[in-house]
Amino acid sequence: MSILSDLQTTLEPLGVPLETGIFSDNAPSEYIVLVPMSDLFELHADNTPEIDVQEVRISLYSKGNYTKAKNAIVRALIADEFTITARQYIGYETDTGYHHYNVDAAKFYELEE
Predict the structure, then answer these.
(1) At residue 100, does pLDDT exceed 80?
(2) What is the dihedral of CA 95, 28, 89, 105, to 10 degrees?
(3) pLDDT at 111 over 80
(4) What is the pTM of this model?
(5) Which of 6, 25, 32 is CA-nearest to residue 101?
(6) CATH classification of the domain holding 73
(7) What is the rounded CA–CA span in Å between residue 45 and residue 75?
(8) CA-to-CA distance for 51 and 21, rounded, in angstroms?
(9) Which domain holds residue 88?
């Protein structure tokens, strides 16, 4: 189980081009980059982890109004039971002409035996 795979399944229906790590093609007017942030084992009383918590930063870049895409991302994450841990407008990048908005999402996976 992988949060990256699950996020691709969740976000692809939005129709916004999506890549992991860096956008390698010619950048369209709007696109998403997934950046893995952490893989954690939550502490348990017996020190044996039972769940794997994976977190990813979803970076939305848009040359226009980013609000519609941001709201669609948030709705899709909530519908597919991701935990949204942070949302933040990073700013307008004058050198590229993109608005940059981040949504951090986590998902909890039971460890496979």
Answers:
(1) yes
(2) -140
(3) no
(4) 0.88
(5) 32
(6) 3.30.2000.30
(7) 35
(8) 25
(9) 3-110
